[in-house]
Every structure is written in C-alpha cells, then in structure tokens.
Design a protein that fits this description.
370 residues, alpha/beta, TIM Barrel, five-stranded parallel beta sheet, three-stranded parallel beta sheet, 12 helices, globular
C-alpha cells in the first residue's frame, strides 16, 4: 500500500505539468471534412483527356426532353467527345417515345441517337396488366425502341394497392422479361443503390458526405427492404429468364467487389454490366480493375448516366491513360484520387462500342472501326 502511494506521489506532478504545458488548439485551424481538400503537390505526368480515343456508345443516358430539345447542340457536344451514339433510356410512355423518335428523324440523327422504352408498374393490380404491357412493349419496339429500361423504383418505391412493395421478381412481370428475349432487345435495369446507403451513417461509412448532403438517400432494412434482398430479387430474374439479355446498371453496385461481380457474371451468362456512375470505384483499384476488364471484356459496356459533357473526361482518363493520383469530379462520390487503367486498344474498343453493337439491335455500326 505504501509503495502504491509513493508511486502516485511521483506521477501526479508529472501529469499536472503535462496538462499545464499542453499547447492550446488554435480555433482558426479547425475545419470540417467538406472543407479539407488540398491540391496535390505530387508532380507526375498528366494527360487530361477530353475526347475518347475511339468513337463510343453511351448505353446509359437520360434526356427527358428529347421530343423538343435542340438536338443539333447535343450532336455537337457528342462530336467533341467522340461519342458515336447515345442511348436515351428515358423513352417514357408510347406517345412520348414516338415524339422523341419524330424529333430525331426530323433532324436526321437516327444513326446517332437510340431510345429505350419504359413501362409503368403502378397498375400491376389490374388483371390485364401483363397482357397490356406486353402489347405496349411490342408497339414501342415497332416504333423504334431498341431496348427496355427498368428504373430503381421497381423494388424500391412502387407499391401495390395494399401498400406493399412490388418485388423485382414478381411473377406478374415474367411475360415482359420473356417478351424482351423474344424480340431480341436488352433490358437495362437499375436496382437498389450503393450498399453503403443501408449502413450506419457514421465515421466508418465511405458515403458519409453524400448521405449528409443528400439525406433522402439513407436507407434501412425496412426502408424499403434489405439491400441484399433487393439485389437477390434482381438476380432471380436474371437466372429465371436465361433467353433475355440483361444489362445491370452501375455494375450492379459491385464495382467495389470485383471478385463477387465476377462470380455473378460466371453464374449468369446472359448478364452484362455498364460502368455508369462507378468509374470512381475502378479508378481507385487500377491493377485489379484492369485484370477484371481483361477477363470480362466481352461483358462490360460504356455508360455514364447523368449527361454532363465535362464529366466524361474523367472516364476517358481512367480507361485510357496511366496517369496517377488525379481527382474525381464529385467529391461526395469519391474523396479519394483516380489512377488510369491504361487499357489496351482491343479491350477499349469492346467497352466503347463493340459490346453494345452486339447487344442492341438497330445501332449503326458504320460509324465505328472494325
């Protein structure tokens, strides 16, 4: 006991001295996570890339006003990017799709712009919904639709009359998936959101900043369902409809786990993926991503999602160059830096246009190299 008291007597003055001499925090040096974004002092070769090395097809774009928008301006921007063809996934209903097609024809851009059809799930409780939706799909196909886009609302927001979430693998949708296979048109489907949206919004979440800036993106197991369940519903459809070609949007949200994505592609040979809105995941793992794209070079398509011309430059730089440590264009998507994959020409051509030409009927191949 005496020994313990003596030790405390010796240590106490040292602790008090440390407290007295601790340097006070300069309040002016405090900053939040959003503010800290210093320019890099790293000096390395830089190859900003504003035009793709080869003409490319953007399989994932949205132009809701295509029936009335200035298509000459759009084509000019596409030419500057070396975009050979853009696929508008927002064909909406049959009347709007026809109006879009008419505007494209009027301007003479049928070889540059393709449109996918959309279907509504809001009236699925009606007894003739499946039959009528199949008829609409056939009508849209005859009027120029070259594919079907399924929005994430299916499996997330759309509910039946009883207020229950409509699952992606609801058997009432089976005739639509089957009809797409019969017509030979692909289904580009976006299901769920990044898995991090379902995880705790704390210091361990890579999407912390995005969830702070966009709090409506936060999900939970009951809002609307567990992430794994929604994705499994998607995979159930892929496996059930082997004669239909599916394009999983955003690499099916597995761009951060390419081993798992490879297993899924091996298990489902009728499934393809596109890289829209996930280039930041590929750009932070250049060696691993390059190996994946080499192995699955016949299954990956170029996509962008939101149409902002200057943002394509980051995609070109990641895919084409061997640049190191360059920024992504949206910090709340990726606070890390990008690295170029330096893909060989034969793989670039497949991702940029060859895979899309094989998958989507009616695209004009004459604009692209052999």
């Amino acid at each position: 006991m005496k020994r313990t008291i003596t030790l405390l007597t010796l240590l106490l003055p040292l602790a008090l001295f440390a407290q007295r001499t601790r340097t006070p925090v300069d309040e002016s040096l405090k900053m939040d996570f959003e503010t800290y974004d210093p320019p890099s002092s790293l000096v390395v070769p830089e190859n900003p890339t504003t035009s793709a090395k080869f003409p490319f097809i953007d399989i994932h774009s949205h132009h809701f006003r295509m029936a009335t928008q200035d298509l000459d301006k759009l084509i000019k921007e596409m030419d500057e990017l070396n975009m050979g063809c853009i696929v508008n996934l927002s064909g909406r209903n049959a009347e709007q799709l026809k109006a879009m097609r008419d505007n494209v024809k009027k301007h003479g851009y049928e070889d540059r712009i393709a449109i996918f059809s959309n279907v509504s799930f809001n009236t699925m409780d009606e007894p003739d919904w499946s039959e009528e939706t199949v008829k609409q799909l056939e009508f849209d196909y005859k009027n120029g639709a070259v594919g079907l886009k399924i929005y994430k609302s299916l499996g997330m927001y759309t509910k039946d009359k009883a207020g229950n979430r409509i699952a992606i693998d609801d058997p009432r949708i089976d005739p639509i998936w089957a009809k797409c296979g019969e017509l030979g048109i692909p289904v580009l489907i976006h299901s769920a959101d990044p898995k991090q949206f379902w995880e705790p919004h704390d210091e361990t979440n890579e999407r912390w900043l995005e969830l702070k800036l966009r709090p409506n993106r936060k999900r939970g197991d009951d809002n609307p369902a567990p992430w794994a369940q929604i994705m499994q519903e998607q995979h159930n459809v892929f496996k059930k409809h082997k004669n239909t070609k599916f394009i999983a949007a955003h690499m099916s949200w597995y761009a951060n786990d390419l081993v798992k994505l490879g297993e899924l592609l091996d298990d489902m040979p009728n499934v393809y993926v596109e890289i829209g809105a996930v280039i930041a995941e590929l750009g932070r793992q250049p060696r691993n991503a390059a190996k994946f794209l080499e192995k699955y070079q016949d299954r990956v398509l170029f996509g962008k999602d939101a149409y902002n011309p200057e943002e394509y430059h980051t995609y070109f730089r990641v895919l084409e160059t061997d640049d190191e440590y360059f920024p992504y264009y949206k910090r709340y998507h990726a606070f890390w830096r990008m690295y170029g994959l330096n893909l060989p020409d034969d793989i670039l051509k497949k991702i940029y246009y060859k895979n899309a030409l094989k998958l989507v009927p009616g695209l004009d191949a004459s604009r692209f190299p052999k």
